[in-house]
Design goal:
The complex is a heterodimer of chains A (114) and B (111). Chain A has 114 residues and is an all-beta fold. Chain A contains no helices and eleven strands. In chain A, 0% of the residues lie in helices and 51% in strands. Classes of the chains: A mainly beta (114), B mainly beta (111). At the A-B interface, strand 5, strand 9 and strand 10 of A face strand 5 of B.
């Protein structure tokens, strides 16, 4: 089964701090995604990528940067974190031709911005 | 406007009962539909996909798709406490490599 790992699993930072969330998939998937999950809003797409060096903008990109360094690794960067970015963050991956392929999710990172 | 709407927001059924979840999309380009399930403390996991009109049955789970009305449903018969979870409907189009998720239905199966 596809494996997606995320680190850290929990993170607490202060307003204005810098945070990097990491995601690694070991299934040779081309597509990787970053979502945030908030009560009442379901899963909202922040950024996604179809390969190393590529970045596509999702629906809620403001305040977030992302970088895909290799096929396996996708990072989400929060510069000058704000309390509104307190959320549960999920990374996911899927195969080529993403729309008809299952997305595999990691276990999530809970971020708290004080 | 949210492209995928789910109802109800929450649902409680007795153990052994039938749970019915509904989903409607507003984008006629959508061709692929999914149900994802998320247990507490875990990431979502694909439960079923349905790409053609009609019913698709997998064990106790049956998905139904009507592309003309852009309506998808999920029916869980003989519900078990382990089915208690957040269920997401998702949809995508052939030319797009992303999936649009609904806000989810929280299912509670009471023993």
């Amino acid at each position: 089964e596809a494996a997606v790992t995320q680190s850290p699993r929990n993170k607490v930072t202060v307003t204005g701090g810098n945070v990097t969330l990491s995601c690694r998939q070991t299934n040779s998937h081309n597509y990787m995604y970053w979502y945030r999950q908030d009560t009442g809003h379901g899963l909202r797409l922040i950024h996604y990528s179809y390969g190393a060096g590529n970045l596509q903008i999702g629906d809620v990109p403001d305040g977030y940067k992302a970088t895909r360094t290799t096929q396996e690794d996708f990072f989400l960067l929060l510069e000058l974190a704000s309390p509104s970015q307190t959320s549960l963050y999920f990374c996911a991956s899927s195969g080529t031709g993403g729309s008809s392929y299952e997305q595999y999710f990691g276990p999530g990172t809970r971020l708290t911005v004080l | 406007q949210q492209k995928v709407q789910q109802s109800p927001e929450s649902l409680s059924v007795p153990e052994g009962g039938m749970a019915s979840l509904n989903c409607t999309s507003s984008d006629r380009n959508f061709q692929y539909f999914w149900w994802y399930r998320q247990h507490s403390g875990e990431g979502p996991k694909a439960l079923m996909s349905i790409f053609s009109d009609g019913d698709k049955k997998e064990g106790r789970f049956t998905a139904h798709l009507n592309k003309a009305s852009l309506h998808v449903s999920l029916h869980i018969r003989d519900s078990q406490p382990s089915d208690s979870a957040l269920y997401f409907c998702a949809a995508s189009e052939p030319s797009n490599n992303r999936i649009f998720f609904g806000d989810g239905t929280q299912l509670v199966v009471k023993p």
